[in-house]
């Protein structure tokens, strides 16, 4: 268990929904949105890497348990719960989930608290797509899409879709031309479960040079009882020279380039 005792907490309410937010660090603000099964041991490890790189992490508890080690026994049931959760539309192709509006409110709060040029936003798996939706607001300057998994790829069309509105793509292209917005994405080759190659092909087509896609060999993932998927957490081998370690280092440099 990792009870995140080194983090402070505060409650944030938006759209009549209150959640606990974990905060740690100094420097520009970075909103980290966790994956299933919750703010796990592996997610907390990634968050601390961001803190150690000189940023202030804001990490809302969106669902699930805090401090558990990820396993199929807690990951699959939590994903099934999301499928019937009204705040998540897991099959939506050309719109985002309602929870993205709550996250936009938190992102604005973080920017108001931190000031500076703007903030970063890192999503992973079921929250990966939300990093792109948050760019609808001008204070989100460094969006990172970690193995974005919605809509669940039950058809070819859904495997290529990105769980954002057409307006989001239009706005991202406008911001790319106007203020140099860049979007970073990471995934594994061989991810046959959630984030398949056609999704990154869509991002490259829609965003052009504004999208930097990092696709790692599936064999570079930490061994797990499932196909490679989570680059930033359970698939991460955080050791110099490892492709997943290098991907995290690129994310940290991306945040620095955009926010400092």
General description of the model:
The strands form 2 sheets. The protein has an 8-stranded mixed β-sheet, with helices on both faces. Strands 4-6 form a two-stranded parallel ribbon. The protein is of the alpha/beta class and 260 residues long. The protein has helices at 41-52, 72-83, 99-114, 130-133, 156-160, 166-179, 197-207, 243-259, and strands at 8-14, 17-25, 29-33, 38-39, 56-60, 65-66, 119-124, 140-146, 183-188, 211-216. Helix 4 links the parallel strand 7 (119-124) and strand 8. The radius of gyration is 17 Å and the shape is globular. It has one domain (8-259): 3-Layer(aba) Sandwich (Rossmann fold), CATH 3.40.50.1820.
CATH architecture designation: 3-Layer(aba) Sandwich
How much is the average pLDDT? 97
Q: State which percent range the strand residues make up.
A: 15-25%
Strand order of the largest sheet: 1-2-5-3-7-8-9-10
The helix/strand series, from N terminus to C terminus, equals: EEEEHEEHHEHEHHEHEH
**Distance linking N and C termini:** 34 Å
Q: How would a textbook summarize the main sheet?
A: 8 strands, mixed
What is the total tally of β strands? 10
User: How helical, in percent, are the residues?
Assistant: 25-40%
The CATH class is identified as Alpha Beta
State the low-pLDDT regions, or none: none
Structural class: alpha/beta
Number of helices: 8
Number of domains: 1
- CATH topological fold name: Rossmann fold
């Amino acid at each position: 268990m990792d009870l995140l005792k080194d983090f402070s907490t505060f409650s944030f309410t938006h759209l009549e929904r209150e959640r606990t937010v974990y905060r740690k660090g100094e420097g520009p603000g970075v909103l980290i949105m966790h994956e299933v099964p919750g703010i796990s041991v592996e997610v907390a490890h990634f968050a601390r890497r961001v803190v150690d790189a000189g940023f202030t992490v804001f990490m809302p508890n969106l669902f699930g348990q805090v401090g558990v080690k990820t396993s199929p026994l807690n990951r699959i049931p939590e994903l099934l719960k999301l499928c019937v959760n009204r705040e998540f539309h897991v099959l939506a192709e050309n719109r985002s989930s309602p929870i993205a509006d709550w996250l936009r409110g938190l992102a604005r709060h973080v920017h108001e608290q931190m000031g500076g040029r703007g903030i970063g936003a890192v999503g992973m798996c079921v929250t990966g797509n939300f990093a792109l939706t948050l760019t609808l607001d001008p204070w989100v300057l460094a969006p990172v899409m970690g193995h974005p998994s919605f809509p669940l790829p039950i058809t070819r069309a859904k495997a290529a879709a990105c769980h954002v509105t057409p307006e989001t793509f239009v706005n991202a292209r406008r911001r790319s031309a106007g203020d140099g917005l860049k979007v970073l994405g990471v995934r594994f080759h061989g991810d046959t479960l959630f984030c398949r190659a056609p999704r990154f092909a869509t991002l490259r087509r829609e965003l052009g040079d504004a999208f930097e896609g990092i696709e790692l060999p599936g064999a570079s993932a930490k061994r797990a009882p499932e196909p490679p998927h989570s680059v930033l957490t359970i698939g991460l081998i955080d050791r110099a020279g490892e492709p997943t370690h290098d991907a995290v280092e690129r994310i940290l440099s991306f945040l620095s380039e955009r926010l400092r």
